[in-house]
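LOG
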Amino acid sequence: MTKQQSGFDILTHPSRLIRIADIDSELAGLWKQFNEDISEGKTVMRACMSNLIIYCDSIEELQQISHEIPEIVDIHPARVLLLMGNGQPSDGKIEALVTMYYQPVSAGWQVCAERIDVIASPDSIEYLPSVARSHLIGDLPTTVWWVSRQPPPNVPAVFLELAELANQVIYDNIGWENPLSGITVMTRWVAARQDSLIVYNLAWRRLTVFRKLISQVLDPKVAPDALNSLKEITIEHGPHALPLTWLLVGWLAYQLEWKPVTGKRVSSSELFWRFRKNNTDIKVIARRLPEGEPLIYELMFDWSRSGKQGRACFKRLDDERIGIVEERSTVPARVFTAQPPHRSSLVTSQLARRDRDKFFENALVAANEMTDVF
């Protein structure tokens, strides 16, 4: 069966779930069918830059990923192995579905992805890594993208084995079920493997706009002594955005050489940290709003001293803009374009990179120190 999705033609058999042992023969059958269908002297080009292993454990996640895969392989062709734990196979404990994404180009037809879905029941999750291992394309880099809302170390039987197959691990702690404990275990896991594996949090790319704005607006040439004289930072974020907030504070702490002293949960919706630099205390307050998207909505910097006010309030105005609030700031009011990026574009951008991001890794070092005092 052929159907359209996001500019691609998708070749698959209708509702044809197969045994794991039949994956290779099913792929061969799809290639044969594809070559027969295009005939007329057209050529078939296979574009494949890497292996992409995706792990999820709910039907909602699988459906969302299915919409994102065409956007990813359009820019970064790959063999995609979509592993779903906690599934409900129709026959037995584990089964698969094979799909191809292709599109016409000037020289013929281009296959941009071979997708293998592997669905395992809760008591068969442990078999997923071995299935993935046997269907990787050799000599190509391998990335594991962890989509599950469970922090990776909380599912060790799957995650640790998948990480052994990979050159790079991508995770996204937005929406984790228990963000506080998840941040703690994940930052420590990443810190222990920074020398052997590229590990990347999509939250870091989501912070790009705020990091640029802070660096520009509070630059010593623009706002003298603002960063060195900071007394308090207040952050308001939407539900599920605590990991985003934690990482931003970690970046600031590392760059400004703050040492965490204490941290505590003030209430179910508010956290507090106290940092120190040169015998000066810096207070950071993070408050969760009752509703909204997993975004940072407001960021207030206060470096006021006796007789001299100094503040900058960044506020998300809508889905596309962040502004400096004039009545709450001593720096000039401005508006910046800041549309939240799609997750698929974040993943694609990281797939194209094979080098380490020292700024991200340094932010994780500070985030890890923040968990130690919490």
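LOG (cont.) second protein
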Amino acid sequence: MAETEIVLKNPQDGAKLSSMRSTVFLLLFVVILWGINVVMIKYLTYFFPPLALAPIRISLATCLLVPIVFKTYGLCRIPKRLFLPLSGVALFSIFLHHLSLSWGVAATSATHAALILGLNPLCTSLMASRWAGEPLSKTKTVGIVLGFCGVAIVVWGKAQGTATLTGDLVMFMATLTAVTGSLFIKYCTRELPVLVVTAYTHLAASVGLLLFGIGVNSVWYDSAAFAPLPMAVLLFSSFINTAMGAWWWNTGIQRIGASKSSLFQNGIPIAGVFASVVFLGEPLRLEHILALLLVVVGVSLGTGILRMPYLHR
């Protein structure tokens, strides 16, 4: 009888593992997109002020997401009980996160910015274990540590002369807003399709960002911004990296939870380094390869793809 039960369980286990693998590949693809997006945003700041670029990118992303959601679901009615959590996603994950990220990167060093963003998985796992009911296991903790070590290796030894306490605090705010927003996403996607959550929150945040941009920007773009290459980069960054990336990322949060999804964010600085090598001609060093291995192992442990049974003893 025991043998029969084992055979019956195997198909379910196989389906779960297949679903986990597809989610892992999806999130890794988003990480690659967001790593490339760092290079794209750096390029676009030559043509758009940072606090104008965020409203423009989010608004363009909204212009793609809203028609898709209307075509797929029509005018989706939102239960009143979800107004507050949806507002939390728009406020924290999009509005505050993008503003504090732009300000923080400009006010501190790249080393400090990358390290502080690397705290995202730790902060998410701690907050998710406290408020979202996601347990903080020993294996997940080891995965967090390994992933953060990978980030630290990449940024170790780079110039820190531009670092300021204010910039560091703002970058930490960018991390906390992203973490807080991810918990709201998990709650909202229990009752609403991921695409609906993504599109509606981008719509709300884009309105807020545009109003904010009108208040702080006297100049929104340089005359050279309408050349073919800047426009192509802007559209790809907005439509693919921002709109589709957010949709796919929120799907990952729905499937495996906020804390496990956050482990992949350790890979964004790594992907950014390799994107810099390809697009900016920066050198690829041995520590980049080591960092990538640590991040991959850390993500595999945290998501359960790679198991360490002795940690459960």
